[in-house]
Structure formats: structure tokens, C-alpha cells
Specification:
With 155 residues, the protein is α+β, with helices and mostly antiparallel strands. The protein has helices at residues 5-18, 55-62, 91-100, 102-108, and strands spanning 2-3, 21-28, 31-38, 40-42, 45-51, 65-70, 73-81, 114-130, 133-140, 145-150. A hairpin with a 2-residue loop joins strand 8 (114-130) and strand 9. The longest helix is centred in the N-terminal third of the chain and has 14 residues, at 5-18. This is Pyridoxamine 5'-phosphate oxidase family protein.
Length: 155
């Protein structure tokens, strides 16, 4: 069933605006790892900071395909390096990050090896219920397409 792209997009943005912590999954060389991250969003784009010496960054360099999840939402996307958090072009991140994650901002943003990562979503999946029916809604970001699929029930 086809859905209105903009309606589902706005629903997702509203949900992301309220969330502070997301789980980030990365992989490289047949090793998958996941961790909770202090994130912010600008529209559908997700941002976080990390240290260049950490496993997640080393994996991102080899494989920029990542997944994030929060509550009943899964996001598949591409991680893009945006330089140090304190660079002028990253001011939008710094201001919002300071507001949402002040403790992390104070502890980490001024460290030399910190880098800003932007996740550009490709596919966002929401798990939902409609009465007693289970369903998933898919937002195909690059295609501007939204779809609902109901689970099939054994008869």
C-alpha cells in the first residue's frame, strides 16, 4: 500500500526530534559492532561525534554503510565524515548538540581527535500495530516513496 511520503517523513522527524540516544551499528572485515550514541537530527539526517581512534570510526572508514535504531524505528544509511566538531561549517551541529547533550559536549567536543559524522538515510523502517494487525512502514528516502506492508497471517 502506497503512503504519502511527506506525511511519513514528518512523523519520523517528529519522533527523531524527541530522541537523544540511538544505537549505531557498524561493520568491517566481517566484524559487526553496535553501541549507544548521543545523536541529534536535522530533518532526517542523523549526526553524532566520535573519536578517530575508536573501532566505530575505523569501521566507518572501511565501510560507510551503517544502521541506527531507536524504539520501533530502524534507519539504514551512509556515514559521511564532516570534519572536527569545532569547524565553522559544523556550527549548526555544535549549537544543537550543546543544547541536547551538554555533558557530552563539555567532555568530548574539544578533543583533538573528535570528528562529526553525518548519516544520510536511505531506508527508514517503522514497526507499527493497527488494532491486532502488525505492519511495517518503509520510507525510501532517495526515491521519495513510502509504503506500508502488513504481516501475513497463517490461515
Amino acid at each position: 500500500m502506497i503512503l504519502d511520503f511527506d506525511t511519513l517523513k514528518e512523523e519520523i522527524i517528529d519522533l527523531l526530534d524527541k530522541k537523544r540516544i540511538m544505537v549505531l551499528a557498524t561493520s568491517a572485515n566481517d566484524r559487526v559492532s553496535a553501541r549507544a550514541m548521543s545523536c541529534i537530527n536535522k530533518g532526517l539526517d542523523i549526526f553524532f561525534q566520535t573519536d578517530k581512534n575508536f573501532l566505530k570510526f575505523k569501521q566507518l572508514e572501511k565501510n560507510p554503510n551503517v544502521a541506527l535504531c531507536v524504539d520501533n524505528v530502524q534507519i539504514e544509511g551512509i556515514a559521511v565524515q564532516k570534519g572536527h566538531i569545532l569547524n565553522d561549517e559544523n556550527k549548526y551541529f555544535l549549537d544543537l548538540y550543546k543544547e541536547k547533550h551538554y555533558g557530552s559536549y563539555k567532555a568530548y567536543s574539544h578533543l583533538e581527535d573528535n570528528i562529526l559524522i553525518k548519516v544520510e538515510p536511505r531506508l527508514i523502517t517503522l514497526w507499527k500495530y493497527e488494532g491486532n494487525k502488525s505492519l511495517r512502514e518503509f520510507l525510501y528516502v532517495e526515491d521519495n516513496k513510502a509504503v506500508r506492508e502488513y504481516y501475513k497471517i497463517i490461515k
